[in-house]
Every structure is written in structure tokens, then in C-alpha cells.
Amino acid sequence: xxxxxxxxxxxxxxxxxxxxxxxxxxxxxxxxxxxxxxxxxxxxxxxxxxxxxxxxxxxxxxxxxxxxxxxxxxxxxxxxxxxxxxxxxxxxxxxxxxxxxxxxxxxxxxxxxxxxxxxxxxxxxxxxxxxxxxxxxxx
Length: 139
Hints:
Layout: H1 3-7, H2 17-70, H3 74-78, H4 82-91, E1 97-106, E2 113-124, E3 127-138
Antiparallel strand pairs: 1-2, 2-3
């Protein structure tokens, strides 16, 4: 009975160096894949947040110009100022965005129409992106 134990072959257990190295390679690949997936998810979330912020800023501008129109302040509609827009964005803590307003007037009073386009531009990892909202006001 003790013959196998005396040789040192019976009762030995454990992993060889090759098995441990193979396991470490698989664990490394899994961790690398997980890290890549998390990094991509963070980028997609940031892109979605920036897109939503840009859309909200464009809609806010449209609503501001709608209030000018509803108040009969037609001169204010056609005198959009880029510096004023940038100052407003800075005050909102959104200085990474750039907003431009384009107002196109057609017709003559009392049948005038104004097309208002609010364009918001921002950079995301070196890629410039735009969101534009348009509306039409008629007297």
C-alpha cells in the first residue's frame, strides 16, 4: 500500500505552471474586454448627454424667439447677436456649446413670415456635431 506514496507520485495535486499561465491569459483577455466595453459605454453616455443638451439649448432659443414674436417685438427677431447667444450659454454653464440663430423674413406686413433656425454646435472627442431646430412664425 505504501509503495505508491513512497515514490512521490500518488496523492499529489495542484496545477502545473502551464495551466496557471493559460488561466492568467484568459483572465487578462476578459479584463481587457470588460475595460473596453466600459470605456465605450461611458463615451456613448457622454455623447447622448451632449446631444440632449444641444437639443435643449436649440429649443430654448426657439422659445425665446417665440416670446419676442408673441410680444410683437419683431425688430428683436431680426437682430440676433452671436455675442449675446454666447454670453447666455456661458451664464448657463454651457460654454462648450456654440449657438447661432438664423432669421429669414419673407413677405410684407401684414402677411410676413419668419423662419427661425437655432443651430447648436459642440465638439465631442474632436468631432464637431450640430443640432438644428427650425420653426415658422406668421403674422
